[in-house]
Amino acid sequence: MILALGCGIAAISLALAIDGKPLDYWKINGYVVQPAVLLSVVATIANALLVFAFTKGATIAWYVTGRIETHTGADKNAGGIVPCVEQH
Fold it and tell me: Which pTM value belongs to this model?
């Protein structure tokens, strides 16, 4: 999440730096790269990081919800884990 925020700051910085600069100013290793391409790369990285953060958050929420539901059921000693086999 922090890296995605960093990408947002980088995108804002790029947008502010682009203003008024000629296209020849944006050379990387001798190649002219359009500023829109740089913004697109930063936005793509930020989106990938946000998807990763969302999936981790959804996983944690699923486990927490499961743990709460098992504690309200009949077996309060399961510790949040539903046993797969019956214990005799």
Answer: 0.61
41 CB burial (10 A radius; 0-12, 13-18, 19+): middle
pLDDT digit string, tens, across residues 35-48: 888 889 889 999 99
Record the tokens describing residue 7, joined without a space. 């990408």
Where do the domains of the chain lie? 2-72
Give the chain's largest Cα–Cα span: 78
Rounded CA gap, 27 and 23, in Å? 8
Q: Using pLDDT thresholds of 50, 70 and 90, give the confidence band for residue 63.
A: confident
